[in-house]
Amino acid sequence: MVMRPLLTLLALIVFGGVWAEVRGAETALPGVAPEAVQLGRDLDGDGDADEVDISLEIIEVQEEVYPGEFVTFWVFAPEGRGMVSPARVPSPTIRVEQGDRVRITLRNTHYFPHTIHLHGAIHPNEMDGVPDFTQPPVKPGEAFTYEFTAKNPGTHFYHCHVQPDVHVLMGLVGMLIIEPNRPDNEFVRLIPGAGRITDLTQAALEHYQREYSLVYMDIDARLNRIPAAYHDPREIEQRMHREYDSTQRRPNIFLLNGRAFPFTLRDSLIEVDADERVKLRVLNAGARTMHLHTHGHHPVLTHVDGYPLSPQARVTRDVFTIGAAQRVDLELRTGRDDTYASGPGVWFMHDHVESTVTNKGISPGGDITAITYEEFVGPDGLPEVATSLDRFFDPAYYRGEIPVFDPEIFHTTRDEYAYGWSEREPVGGEFDYMARDTTVAPLPQRSAIEGHQIVADACEEPRAFRRIHVQGGIQFARAGEVFAFEPRVLRAEPCEEVEIVFENKDAVRHALMLPGLNPMFTLEFTGPDTQVARFVTPDRDITLEFHCHVETHDEMGMHGRLIVGEGGETHAHVEQDDEEGEEKRLHEGVGVVVSVDKRAGRLVIDHEEIPGFMAPMVMSYQVQPASLLQDVVPSDQVRFTIDATQRAIIDIVAER
């Protein structure tokens, strides 16, 4: 079994190092670097850290926002490590305490300039994050640290202020919460994405039993399609910032915490119990004005844009109008009474602008979620409803291939639905109506599995030694690139131990990786710095590709070739099916579960070599169906089957 040190296996965020006093440790998602969050001294002597250092980078991610719909986003993300990225949309919810001295370092790993604007927080002018006005934009490969003292408690947010008509709507936006100061106030400082806040602060516990951060977005899928469709950063810039007209945008996907219905039900379900008070922090990160409606409940509006309302100004409503960039805090009172709540059940919650509860014009979709009492939450984590939600989890429904109503209503079947229609002219003659745009093909799913399969095994007993110096950074890029290695072609002999001296010239993370070599070689760290590591070449002439595995760095120029001996073509290890002689698509693996995301249907696993398929590594895999994860927990040893065609685990057995 591949057993790594415990800190690597659990991907801990380690506090201390930068600050003078270590305050403890916090378990985070896999792929988070120790530098992502560091806590320092207790300045006011009340038992909790008052120095907070957060390191963010910018990652391009592709996410399935509803069944079959894959969308490309840019997000701020905790500084990462390894093959498993903690990045997701929206950007992480940041939590600090009133009085904290906060430093947020933006390491621009992206191919465009960016900044961070701390919207709503009190901060010095030079920390306002407006490009050209208060600072130069942070260029690719550079870093900038925003420093401020958290003063005004409340629900705020942060976003990129470079070309905000595009960058904010691409996902560079997240909630910023400043908590009131209380003694012994320990809590998680970064929550990837948003949603249920499981560790309430001392101030929240004084009034509430539960708390949720809810980030609403509206996107035009045509805009998000551009960086996925083109590769040269110059062309992406022209198409996104000069050809795309944001004044003519047509939002057609509406998201809550980065998902649309039905995925919102497993990702952002508002779970409650009777006789509770639940705090809902709501951010409208989109460009529309929304009208949030809660069925069966009349919450109390307690805060607007981070500031509390006086008791006389608080209102109880079932529809709340929230403008772009506005935040409201709602107090949801549950149970059954004559004013605030109608009783237990599964209660709809949505924007009452009717087009926003569709997925590209097909209903139900969009930002629908539900206030769901615990006794109505099923074993799969979904609400127990009157009929079935199954058809909404079928991608064919949102492709318009499944009738909205049961065909039996019209005394037909799904197969015969489109036959036998009347050939008469429409009443009043032919006419036009707005039809769904079906001219754009679905974006194919991006998979980390592709490009990381085994093509060669390292020699068991090296016969020679070689040292190679490699540099990496923006200064080595050519026209149409952003990052690059120098040199781009490395040479070694078969069965040779190679020591790589990697000099990272940038102030961001780079990783020099040989993805096809078994065991896989990776040298990854944040620069500017120099580090050394070794690998052994295969015992044959072959050409291996190497690249930086930080998202988009390969595509933006950071790749090259290792020529072993005379070189030669690479061929993945292909196992043959004994009966049919076709490439084997099923691969068996063994590993230890690092984390389980049942709502997203994903499993992070530290696995041994998967013979003929993948080197030993920590990797995130899609699991289909997601119900296979129902009884899987971290630290389980498991056997699993990967279907290379589906790029997913299709069977998993825990060995406890």
From TrEMBL:
Keyword line: Copper, Metal-binding, Oxidoreductase
Protein origin, superkingdom: Bacteria
Keyword NAD: no
Pfam families named in the record: Cu-oxidase_2 (PF07731), Cu-oxidase_3 (PF07732), CusF_Ec (PF11604)
Gene3D superfamilies: Copper binding periplasmic protein CusF, Cupredoxins - blue copper proteins
Residues in Plastocyanin-like domain copies: 88-181, 244-355
PANTHER family per UniProt: FI03373P-RELATED, MULTI-COPPER OXIDASE
Protein name (record): Multicopper oxidase domain-containing protein
Annotated source species: Litchfieldella qijiaojingensis
